Amino acid sequence: MLTAVYKSAKKEQTYLFIKQRDDFSQVPETLLQVFGKPELVTVVNLKTKIKLGFADINKVRDSLTEQGYYLQLPPPKEDLLAEHKASKLDTLNEDS
Asked: Which residues contact 59 (CB under 8 A, 6 or more apart)?
């Protein structure tokens, strides 16, 4: 299964996988508006791949089969302040 991968011109670390290069017919128009002009990154054969960088390859395959596209969003940003506060609370609770 050959898949074209595009990066977003508007959203950092956001990628769109589609079944056929330059065929965005199955991608909702509203998604394309938010995504911006797609920039081709690569064409990947999902049959020969075991895993992808940040996306679950099985979810990508399923989404391509069911919807005709897969949208990979960036990982959530770390909130270091919240993590620090939580660790301090854990420490205080352990000491009491």
From this structure: 70
54: CB partners within 8 A, 6+ apart: 72, 75
Domains of the chain, first to last: 2-95 (3.10.510.20)
Q: CA-to-CA distance for 86 and 43, rounded, in angstroms? A: 43
| pLDDT exceeds cutoff 70 at 95 | no
Tokens for 3, please give them.
């898949």
Give pLDDT tens digits for 15-67: 999 999 999 999 999 999 999 999 999 999 998 888 887 888 999 999 999 99
Q: Which residues of 1-38 are buried (b: 16+ CB within 10 A; e: fewer)?
A: eebbbbbbeeeeebbbbbbeeeebeebeeeeeeebeeb
